[in-house]
Amino acid sequence: MVAIKAARLGRGSMNSLTCPRCRKNSYSSYDASFLACPYCGFKFSKKYGAEKRLEERTKQEIPFTFFHREENFEASTLDVSEKGLSVEIFGKPLVTVSDIVGFSIRDNQIKAKVRWIVKLQYKSRMGLQKLN
Ligand SMILES: [Zn+2]
User: Fold this and answer.
1) Domain containing 100 — which CATH number?
2) Between 42 and which of 2, 21, 57, 59 could a Cys-Cys bridge form, CB atoms 3.0 to 4.6 Å apart?
């Protein structure tokens, strides 16, 4: 019994953090420290959110078709900024980090480098760095 109680107390002192970028949960014992998300590397803290010095990201959901290695996937942007964007893809394209991908969103041709990928059950999220 004592051991169980100690374990519960131990867990209680940890904070569950939801990454603002990939939405996965991780744990930290400090509210205010900036830690990199173990899944996508995004730095944030529970207390302050995303690091302020990071570029402004605008939430923008624009549907588009992601075509990669002869396969079409339904996709949508999640947020868009000057230098990059994060997208959600319905399916699991054969993409790996640092691949160069190309697609068009509302007639804009986009060429981008994959910076991170999170694979969920039926979909994938990717962070892309714009190259054009
Ligand atoms: Zn993350």
Assistant:
1) 2.40.10.220
2) 21
Q: What range does the domain containing 39 cover?
A: 2-50
Write the pLDDT tens digit of every residue in 24-75: 887 766 566 677 788 888 877 776 666 554 556 778 889 999 998 889 999 9
Cβ pair 128, 101 in contact under 8 A: yes
Sorted by sequence, the CB contacts under 8 Å of residue 117 that are 6+ apart come out as 95, 96, 97, 124, 125, 126, 127
- Name the domain count of the chain: 2
9 CA to centre of ligand 1 in angstroms: 26
Give this prediction's pTM. Answer: 0.58
Amino acid 50: pLDDT: 65
Mark whether 68 and 121 lie in a shared domain.
yes
Q: Are 44 and 63 in the same domain?
A: no
Last residue of a domain, one of 32, 50, 68: 50
Tell me which residues have their CB within 5 A of the ion that is ligand 1. 19, 21-22, 37, 39-40, 42
